[in-house]
Design a protein that fits this description.
Elements (H helix, E strand, L loop, with lengths): L2 H4 L3 H23 L5 H7 L10 H31 L7 H24 L5 H28 L14
């Protein structure tokens, strides 16, 4: 393994952080999130007492829903860390495409929806989205730096080598 393949570019370190944040969020949904938050009844426009007749069934249902959601968020975080440690770290263009699409469909969309519904957690989710976006901006900057610093090939053309 050469020295360059052992290094961790800032983009990968930040993407690992984004993945760890997702793992933590998933664990929160699985272990700690109560079935109903005050923002939930506020969004539905009902008093918490109005739900009392169906509360046991509703809470049982929502607990299962949040276990599934939490599992998917946690899995997305694990896959994000894995991507950051492998092909994203090596500046593979397809890894960047995966990070863009995966992040937009996961934490990006979650943050957007939480702004739409006026969630109490919208700013936390936006901060998590910005960590992910920062990793992508760093990736683009690193790629540009690598292209600029590549020596000209023997035919006078710049070549893209291993990043």
């Amino acid at each position: 393994m050469d020295v360059q393949s052992r290094t961790w570019p800032p983009s990968s370190i930040v993407l690992v952080l984004a993945g760890i944040l997702l793992v933590g969020t998933g664990a929160y949904f699985i272990i700690l999130r109560p079935p109903l938050l005050p923002e939930d009844t506020r969004f539905m426009g009902v008093a918490a007492a109005q739900l009392d007749p169906i509360r046991p069934q509703l809470e049982a249902w929502l607990t299962n829903v949040f276990w599934v959601l939490g599992g998917y968020i946690l899995a997305t975080g694990v896959l994000t860390v894995t991507l950051a440690a492998t092909s994203f770290r090596q500046h593979s263009p397809i890894a960047a495409v995966g990070a863009v699409l995966g992040g937009a469909a996961s934490i990006g969309w979650m943050a957007a929806v939480n702004f739409m519904i006026g969630s109490d957690f919208k700013w936390v989710l936006l901060a998590m989205t910005l960590v992910w976006a920062c990793s992508l901006a760093l990736f683009a900057w690193e790629l540009r730096q690598n292209l600029v610093m590549q020596p000209a090939s023997s035919d006078g053309q710049k070549s893209y080598g291993d990043a």
